[in-house]
Amino acid sequence: MNLLSVEHLNVNFHFKKRELTALIDVSFNLKRGERIAIVGESGAGKSILGFSIVNLIGKPGYIQSGTIKLENKDITKMNLRQLQEIRGKRIAMIFQDPMMTLNPVITIGDQLVETIRSHTKINYKDAKNIAIEKLRNVQIASPERRFDQYPHELSGGMRQRVIIASVLLLNPDIIIADEPTTALDVTIQAEILQLLLAICRDNGVALILISHDLGVVSKVAERTLVMYAGQIVEEGPTLEIINDPQHPYTQGLLNALPQMALPGQRLNQIKGSMPSLAERPSGCAFHPRCPYATDKCRTQQPEFIYSGVSSVACFMVEDMLSEFSQDDEGSL
Amino acid sequence: MTHPLIQISGLEKTFSSDTGWFGKWRLPGRKGRGKTDQIFALNGVNLTIYQGETLCVVGETGCGKSTLARSIMGLDEPSAGEIHYLDQRIDHLNNRQRMLFRRRMQMVFQNPYASLNPRMTVYQTLSEPIAFHNPQLSRLDVDEQVETLLESVGISANSSDRYPHEFSGGQRQRISLARALSVEPEFIVADEPLSALDVSVQAQVLNLMMDKQEEYNLSYLFITHDLAVVEHFANRVAVMYLGRICELANTSTLFSAPKHPYTQALLSAIPRLDSTAADPIRLIGEVPTPTEKPIGCVFQARCPYANPRCYSETPDMTLQSDGSSVACHAIEEGRL
């Protein structure tokens, strides 16, 4: 059974004069203990999707239609009290910048204890013990001393560890990590990724990793969703997506990486840039940048189709597949 | 490789926190003045940049790579050491003397949102340096140059009356590059020019930089933390740690046979697409803040191979058999 299933999710932003669409018909499932990644460039809607899952979209944004089911309970229809039961306890979030997430004027220990005590009836001493235990779990040296320190006394990597500890306090089923290592150096990034991976594996926590870095994704996630202009354009096992991308956008994204070209040679760039929400192209949103675009792509929206192991929303792949199956019939 | 363009020797830069009035203020209940905090950003950097080459400087946050770039450009005055441009010494120049060099060396900054004046149109941004450095040019000539410049970086000339906020990040970074190229420099310092951009746009800017290098025989000092870009773009790589260069080598040599323990850890930490790559080498702790002048090797605290000598004696850069230079006692002694 699916732990989380998002179906036909549409998120809009409502302004006085116009309505902007941020997410269009997004559907995906997450099983217990599964690690998935959402990949895309800035403006693709990956963070909006992350926020929507815990219904944190603030005005002027709102969930226009669709369902987000956490074990058959629809998050989109919950009131604030029900949401507070879920946020943190069932689904926890890790954000990009640890300095922004931690309160600078409260000690780390008090922030952790506050989190525990706001969700469970427990005295300060017991809560403190749990907090120190969790700090030890994320490999923070001398957690008793760190407990009384303020966020500014810690380095960036250490702060992100504290955040991960705080997320673990309530033993959530799902962790949503929104670019958790983007603000960190490579050596620290590698450590934090290993930690996150180990924690998810050991505790059977499902992970939704939001990232723009395909290298990071390939280290952590089992399954990957590629987003472009508010839509999922490709979904499949991470290795499959990296080794055999189907959608022209995924292909372009991978080909644009410096390691894909010979040293000193020109890189394979994708022309143009991601459209803004207000200037969404008709038909397939990728068609102005797509080398294979046809008239059909300019007018019609491609459906999500299943091709082998991954699913793709692209007319070219669809045509290729139907030709393929016709050939098969002919030969029979 | 041809002639050395820039030679840096023994460059040091110390930042002191005692410059503001607040630090001199006597707070009630506190005796004496506040303690001066010093940050030793550069601790004796020796580096040569050759004509027409791309030298990448890599390192983690706080290793002094941006300070190095700013010192070369004269934006920060070095505390000690010398910088030579061809055969002229260019540190400690006053503004008037530096003007001659401003034409020859330019800089592209990290954040294209902050480095373009939001109140100037693209035309104003680009025409100002052209008109300033070429007072003999007529208005029409300047217009024409701005137009060709914009077209050459892939931005249509009829958008020259638009303001920076009307462009995307990649376009802005291309305008920054156009501004740097407007005075026809020989040398461009690029301080993390790609880090604010998306992957597909990064490729566009990097391609443009390579095209321009070929066109004008430019030399680049390229500062970055993205090792994939380095592997693709650089001729030579300098790895920095706590204000010192710990390894300097040709790109292919560095990536195939990294020698310094720090370089090895850094390279192993890159998240690569192929899943077969080995686990990253774990370093103990994080980059310390250099509030004290380091004694011995700068990497001692995190190095798995450190011995007493590393804590007392500073390793010098020594030339290796494959042409790379490494500053490490362990390699010198054959322990590694």
From TrEMBL, chain A:
Localization: Cell inner membrane
Membrane topology: Peripheral membrane protein
EC number: 7.4.2.9
NCBIfam families linked to this entry: oligo_HPY
InterPro entries, alphabetized: AAA+_ATPase (IPR003593), ABC_Ni/Peptide_Import (IPR050388), ABC_transporter-like_ATP-bd (IPR003439), ABC_transporter-like_CS (IPR017871), Oligopep_ABC_C (IPR013563), P-loop_NTPase (IPR027417)
Matches recorded under SMART domains: AAA
A single GO cellular-component term on record: plasma membrane
Name of this chain's protein: ABC-type dipeptide transporter
Organism the protein comes from: Marinomonas aquiplantarum
Pfam families per the UniProt record, alphabetical: ABC_tran (PF00005), oligo_HPY (PF08352)
Catalysed reaction equations from the record: a dipeptide(out) + ATP + H2O = a dipeptide(in) + ADP + phosphate + H(+)
Protein family according to the UniProt entry: Belongs to the ABC transporter superfamily.
Record PANTHER family: DIPEPTIDE TRANSPORT ATP-BINDING PROTEIN DPPD, OLIGOPEPTIDE TRANSPORT ATP-BINDING PROTEIN APPD
Gene3D superfamilies: P-loop containing nucleotide triphosphate hydrolases
Keywords, in A-Z order: ATP-binding, Cell membrane, Membrane, Nucleotide-binding, Transport
Gene Ontology process terms (BP): peptide transport; transmembrane transport
Domain of life where this protein originates: Bacteria
The ABC transporter domain, residue ranges: 6-254
Molecular-function GO terms, alphabetical: ATP binding; ATP hydrolysis activity
Automatic annotation (TrEMBL), chain B:
Name the UniProt record assigns to this protein: Peptide/nickel transport system ATP-binding protein
Keyword Transport: yes
Entry-linked SMART domains: AAA (SM00382)
Family stated for the protein in its record: Belongs to the ABC transporter superfamily.
Domain ABC transporter: 6-267
GO molecular function annotations of the record: ATP binding; ATP hydrolysis activity
Origin superkingdom: Bacteria
Keywords recorded for this protein, A-Z: ATP-binding, Nucleotide-binding, Transport
One of the GO BP terms on file: peptide transport
Organism: Marinomonas aquiplantarum
InterPro entries the UniProt entry points to: AAA+_ATPase (IPR003593), ABC_transp_ATP-bind (IPR050319), ABC_transporter-like_ATP-bd (IPR003439), ABC_transporter-like_CS (IPR017871), Oligopep_ABC_C (IPR013563), P-loop_NTPase (IPR027417)
